[in-house]
Amino acid sequence: MNEELLNLLRKVLNAAAELEEIEGEVVVSFVDDERIHELNREYRGIDRPTDVLSFAMTEQGEDEVEIFVDEEDQEMPTMLGDIIISIPRAKEQAEEYGHSFEREMGFLTAHGFLHLIGYDHGTEEEEKEMFGRQEEILNRVGLVRE
User: Fold this and answer.
1) Cα–Cα distance between 12 and 75 in angstroms, integer?
2) pTM for the full model?
3) pLDDT tens column, 63-90
4) How buried is residue 108: exposed, middle or buried, by Cβ count under 10 Å (0-12/13-18/19+)?
5) What is the domain range of residue 130?
């Protein structure tokens, strides 16, 4: 992963956090289709690769211990969660949609971030809101539709 792309993705995350008026840390991992397929199967019960997965720290799954954070401990930044992106899938989708790899990576990063903070696209209304936010984030960092 080149430094220029990593800096762009940092800008996407910062723009998203600013737009949503939220502070916190996010871990972004880049994997291949095989690894994201394993994660998708293990955590979502979906036996196929996907483009991006988000694991919010605020969500508690079955058999998981609840994590308590002392709100007054200002030294500990808020951990929002993990975003995992499939590089091969991002390359395929960029080609399929006719835009740059950078825009696709920015889109997936923004998409993953919004999932971390509670956005979803299960209904038409939710999808419209979430995808509108994604476009606003991408426009803020100059990743406009070509």
Assistant:
1) 25
2) 0.87
3) 444 445 555 555 667 899 999 999 999 9
4) buried
5) 3-59+78-140
